[in-house]
Write a structure and sequence with these properties.
This protein is of the alpha/beta class. Helix content is about 40%, strand content about 15%. The protein is built from 16 helices and ten strands. Strands 1-2-10-9-8-7-5-6-4-3 form a ten-stranded mixed sheet, sandwiched between helices. It is globular, with a radius of gyration of 21 Å.
């Protein structure tokens, strides 16, 4: 007689084989809205590099900084050389990114930050593996790198791998966990809406106070980019960040929720959220309908149950997105941000519908690095735990530091932030507009 544990194990194996078969079958199909080489030429996206997975291109407004990034990223080894064995299966890349843990599990030191309304967010400082650090060429030994997980709060193996790579290069990586996410205690019956940067602003202010002479950098993953983009737009020149990057960002939140996502991505995130929220069912009961919340069958239903159908201040779906669209204040952003996207991203959607191309053409602060293949937050390459997207982001921060140092020397400006070196700088970062002209 088969034990219940055996039945569960067999079911998990069969489910895994079914998911793999679906990924392989779906990967044979042409991705809707995929950009061929001819379409890229028509869009006028400058050529960066070419390899086995196709051409990577940079779309941005012409400027001195843009020219420097084209040269630096074009020379970077991350955009050249070997790629993953199966580049045309973005759903398999997505499955790998979601499920595969990093080769080395980092040691983490958690710090709880109390907010003005007595709510808590958690900052996880990566201090391992075993506290070892090597190298110091990236953004300088004192650069703090803030890592923002996806909107479900799931800290993926890819995000941890990026943190470890940054640690090796001398950065100080720290993961931002929203209220009630990733084991962070929920002390108020309130969670953070999709594009509300209030809690992130408090965390950045705290990091600035804790590291007053360090440059602050930020990287977001997937749907978590909605929070970072909203913060950059709402804060403008007062963001206190020196530079930012978004890996496979979601630019249009409402469209993304309404269009739905591949079930292979949506259901694990939905279950992850429900499992975390179920721990706080008692405290959330005074604010939302918990039965409706835990009975949600999609991320959209869960988002509506949490933030629209509240008991005290119900609001409409339309009004919610007027306050939470990631790009609602994009014109006010005053910090350079690199958006790394692939044309075959099965989660974000077709490029023609999901990429705000005009923003990258008109704003001197937004840079779109578009690659034909890479899936969603995947960008895999041969070798264990390797993601060329991570290397590209770290190279971008290195290029930014190099550009700022050169501009400061050329113009004789006081150094606005610390990217390495003995000088003591003022605590507030100032981005000179001449850098983007």
């Amino acid at each position: 007689m088969v034990s219940p544990e055996g039945l569960v194990a067999a079911a998990m194996v069969l489910t895994g084989l079914g998911l793999l078969a679906w990924c392989l079958w779906a990967g044979r199909l042409k991705v809707p809205g995929d950009w061929g080489e001819e379409e890229e030429e028509e869009e006028g996206i400058p050529f960066i590099a070419e390899d086995g997975s196709g051409r990577s291109r940079l779309l941005c407004k012409p400027s001195a900084l843009a020219q420097h990034l084209v040269r630096s990223l074009g020379r970077a080894a991350a955009l050249r050389g070997g790629r993953w064995l199966w580049p045309r299966w973005p759903r398999l890349q997505m499955l790998r990114q979601l499920l595969q843990p990093p080769a080395l599990q980092p040691a983490v030191a958690r710090e709880l930050l109390q907010l003005p309304d007595t709510g808590l967010v958690a900052l996880d400082w990566l201090v391992g593996p075993r506290g070892a650090r090597s190298g110091s060429s990236g953004g300088g030994p004192s650069s703090v790198l803030l890592l923002i997980p996806n909107a479900a709060g799931k800290v993926t193996g890819g995000l941890l791998q990026l943190g470890l790579r940054a640690l090796e290069r001398g950065f100080i990586p720290v993961i931002f966990n929203r209220r009630g996410h990733n084991g962070c205690p929920l002390t108020t019956p309130r969670l953070q809406p999709f594009g509300d940067p209030g809690d992130l602003r408090e965390a950045v202010t705290y990091l600035r106070c804790r590291h007053p002479t360090a440059s602050l950098l930020a990287v977001s993953e997937g749907s978590g980019s909605g929070l970072l983009l909203a913060y950059l737009g709402e804060s403008g020149s007062s963001s206190r960040l020196a530079a930012a990057a978004c890996i496979s960002p979601v630019f249009r939140g409402r469209d993304w929720f309404e269009a739905g996502m591949p079930w292979l991505y949506e259901w694990p995130l939905l279950l992850h959220l429900k499992r975390g929220l179920s721990r706080y069912a008692g405290s959330l009961a005074e604010a939302v309908d918990v039965d409706r919340l835990l009975g949600s069958r999609s991320l959209r239903e869960l988002e509506e149950a949490l933030f629209c159908r509240t008991k005290s201040r119900p609001t409409s779906w339309e009004a919610y997105w007027e306050r939470n669209e990631p790009l609602r204040d994009a014109d006010e952003a005053a910090v350079p941000v690199l958006c790394l996207c692939s044309a075959d991203d099965p989660v974000r959607g077709p490029p023609a519908r999901s990429l705000p191309l005009e923003l990258f053409r008109s704003s001197p602060y937004f840079f779109l690095l578009l690659t034909p293949r890479g899936g969603h937050c995947g960008f895999p390459r041969r070798g264990p735990g390797r993601c060329w997207g991570h290397e590209t982001v770290l190279e971008y921060f290195r290029a930014m530091a190099e550009f700022l140092r050169a501009e400061e020397r050329r113009k004789g400006l006081p150094r606005p932030c610390r990217w390495g070196g003995p000088a003591v700088e003022p605590p507030v970062f100032t981005w000179h507009r001449s850098y983007t002209r």
